[in-house]
Design a protein that fits this description.
Blueprint lengths: L1 H9 L5 H13 L18 E3 L10 E2 L15 H19 L3 E5 L9 H13 L2 E7 L5 H9 L9 E7 L4 E2 L14 H18 L2 E10 L7 H8 L6 E6 L18 H12 L16 E4 L1 E4 L2 E4 L6 H13 L10 H14 L3 H16 L5 H14 L2 E2 L1 E5 L4 H12 L7 H11 L3 E5 L4 E4 H19 L8
Parallel strand pairs: 1-3, 1-14, 3-4, 4-5, 5-7, 7-8, 8-13
Antiparallel strand pairs: 2-6, 9-13, 10-11, 10-12, 14-15
Helix pairs in contact: 3-4, 4-5, 5-6, 7-8, 9-11, 11-12, 13-14, 13-15
Length: 470
C-alpha cells in the first residue's frame, strides 16, 4: 500500500514545488513579457547554464564570446565537477526541482570522459536535464568512454549534445579553414551518425542540436544550412546572429548590418515554411524566437498555425491545463499517467487535441478535403513524423548590457528608452547562470559581457596552463 501511495504521488500532474517555482518566474517577468503565448512561468522556468567551469577551447571563432583570458585557463576535472555541483545546487534552490541546463564553458570534450560524465550525473542529481555544448570535433571513442564508463557498462542511458558548426570557426580537424558552409555538411552529418551508432551498438538514447553563428559573411548561406542540416537528424536547429560580445580582437565584421528579420527570413527560405515565432514565447521575443515542428519525409511542418484561432485555443488550453505538468525527467509510464489524470479532470482537452491532430494531418496531406486527410495519414505511416524545433537566440552587445545591468543593480528604471529596453530583455532572460558565492542568478548576456572578463582573469591565476612560481 505504501508503494502504491508513493507511485500515485509521483504521478500527480502538478508538483507543488514546481508550481511555486513557476509562479516566482512569472512574477519576475516584466509586464511586456507576460503574454498569452509566454511559456516561462507557465510551463518552464527557463534554461540554465554553467560558467567558469572550463573556459578553454581548442578552436577559434570570429566572433568569440569568450574573454581574452579564457584560453589561458587549464581544464581541470575536479574544478569542473565541484563548480557544477555548487551552481546546480543554487539553481535547484532558486529555480525549483527541474529544468534544462547546459554544460557549457569552452569546449566540453577537453574534459576527460570520466569528469564529463561526473558533471552530467551531478546535474541530473539536482533535477537538471543536461546538454553538453561542443564544437563537434570529436570521435566515437570519446562518446563511448563518456557513455559507457571504464568498466564498459552503460552509465548514461541518454545523452544530449549541441554541436556548433559554421564557417566562422577555424582549426577543425580535416577542414581547418572552411571555404563555405556547404563544405561542413560531411562533418555535420558525421556528428549525428556518431550518436546513431552509439544508440545502435550500446542502446544509449540521444538528442542532438545544431547551432550556428550568423554574420554578414555567411548570412546568404543560412537557407542552405537549414535545408541540408534539417534533414540530417538533428532535433533542433539553432541560429545566433553575431553580437559584439567577448574578445574584441575577433570582431571583424559590421554585425549590425544585418537584422534578426534578415536571418529569420533565410531560415524560412531554407525550410520552405513560414515560421511564426509569436505563437509561443520563451522570454523576450527580441532575444528568442522559437518554432516547433516535425518532418514527414522531405518536408518540414510547423506544429501550429498562428493565424488559426483553433490552434491559438489549443495553445491556451495546453498552457492552462498542462502548463504545471513537469515533462522533464519523468519516465514514459509516469508521464502517461500524469497526462491521463489531467484529461480525466478536464475532458474538454480531448476534442481540442483531436482537432489539432486532424489539422496537422490535413497539413501533411496538403489540403482540406477528406482525401487529404487520408493522404496525410498515409504519408505519416509511410515516413513517420520526426520532431525538430527551430530557434534563434539574439545576444545583446556588451556595450549595451553594462549600463542596463548597472541600472538594474541600483534598482533604477532607466530614463533612456534604449537602456530601458535592454533592462526589460535582461529581466525576461530565458537563460540563467548561478553564482553560489553571493547567491545571485544572472542572465547569460550579463555573464558574458560583464562578469566573464574578471572571472576568467581570476581562473587564470587559479588554474594556470603552466605552473606559476609563488
Amino acid at each position: 500500500m505504501r508503494r502504491l501511495r508513493a507511485w500515485w504521488r509521483s504521478t500527480r500532474p502538478a508538483d507543488p514545488e514546481f508550481v511555486a517555482a513557476l509562479a516566482r518566474r512569472w512574477a519576475e517577468l516584466p509586464a511586456i513579457a507576460r503574454t498569452p503565448a509566454q511559456v516561462i512561468g507557465r510551463h518552464a522556468v527557463g534554461c540554465e547554464g554553467t560558467h567558469g567551469v572550463f573556459p578553454r577551447c581548442n578552436l577559434s571563432c570570429t566572433p568569440c564570446y569568450h574573454s581574452r583570458d579564457a584560453n589561458r585557463v587549464r581544464t581541470d576535472g575536479a574544478h569542473t565537477v565541484g563548480e557544477v555541483d555548487a551552481q546546480m545546487a543554487l539553481l535547484r534552490r532558486r529555480r525549483g526541482p527541474v529544468a534544462h541546463a547546459q554544460l557549457i564553458g569552452g569546449e566540453v570534450t577537453l574534459l576527460g570522459p570520466d569528469d564529463h560524465a561526473a558533471a552530467l550525473l551531478t546535474m541530473r542529481g539536482h533535477g537538471r536535464e543536461p546538454m553538453s555544448m561542443t564544437h563537434g570535433d570529436l570521435d566515437d571513442d570519446y562518446l563511448e568512454r563518456l557513455a559507457l564508463g571504464p568498466d564498459g557498462r552503460r552509465r548514461l542511458r541518454r545523452i544530449s549534445f549541441a554541436g556548433h558548426f559554421d564557417s566562422l570557426m577555424t582549426g577543425r580537424r580535416g577542414i581547418p579553414r572552411p571555404p563555405d558552409e556547404a563544405s561542413l555538411h560531411p562533418y555535420r552529418r558525421a556528428f549525428v551518425e556518431r550518436f546513431e551508432r552509439l544508440r545502435r551498438e550500446h542502446g544509449v538514447r540521444f538528442f542532438v542540436a545544431h547551432t550556428m553563428t550568423v554574420s554578414p559573411a555567411n548570412l546568404a548561406e543560412v537557407a542552405e544550412v537549414a535545408h541540408a542540416a534539417g534533414r540530417m537528424g538533428f532535433g533542433m536547429l539553432a541560429f545566433q546572429p553575431a553580437a559584439f560580445v567577448g574578445d574584441h580582437r575577433r570582431w571583424h565584421e559590421p554585425y549590425r548590418a544585418m537584422t534578426d528579420d534578415d536571418v529569420w527570413a533565410e531560415i524560412e527560405r531554407g525550410l520552405g515554411a513560414r515560421l511564426d515565432h509569436t505563437f509561443v514565447q520563451h522570454g523576450d521575443l527580441r532575444c528568442n524566437r522559437v518554432v516547433y515542428g516535425f518532418w514527414v519525409g522531405e518536408r518540414w511542418y510547423p506544429l501550429a498555425d498562428g493565424d488559426d484561432p483553433r490552434d491559438l485555443a489549443a495553445r491556451d488550453a495546453f498552457l492552462e491545463h498542462f502548463g504545471p505538468v513537469n515533462f522533464i525527467g519523468s519516465s514514459a509510464p509516469v508521464l502517461l499517467v500524469k497526462v491521463l489524470r489531467v484529461v480525466l479532470r478536464h475532458p474538454r482537452t480531448v476534442p481540442i487535441a483531436l482537432g489539432w491532430s486532424r489539422r496537422r494531418v490535413l497539413a501533411v496531406g496538403d489540403g482540406a478535403e477528406r482525401s487529404s486527410t487520408l493522404s496525410g495519414l498515409r504519408r505519416v505511416l509511410r515516413h513517420g513524423a520526426r520532431p525538430m524545433s527551430v530557434v534563434m537566440h539574439s545576444f545583446i552587445d556588451a556595450a549595451d548590457v553594462a549600463p542596463a545591468w548597472e541600472a538594474t543593480q541600483r534598482g533604477e528604471v532607466a530614463a533612456d528608452p534604449s537602456v530601458r529596453d535592454i533592462q526589460e530583455r535582461l529581466a525576461a532572460c530565458h537563460y540563467t547562470m548561478a553564482h553560489p558565492d553571493d547567491g545571485s542568478l544572472v542572465p547569460a548576456c550579463v555573464q558574458h559581457s560583464v562578469l566573464d572578463p574578471g572571472e576568467n582573469a581570476e581562473l587564470r591565476r587559479l588554474l594556470p596552463i603552466t605552473p606559476v612560481r609563488r
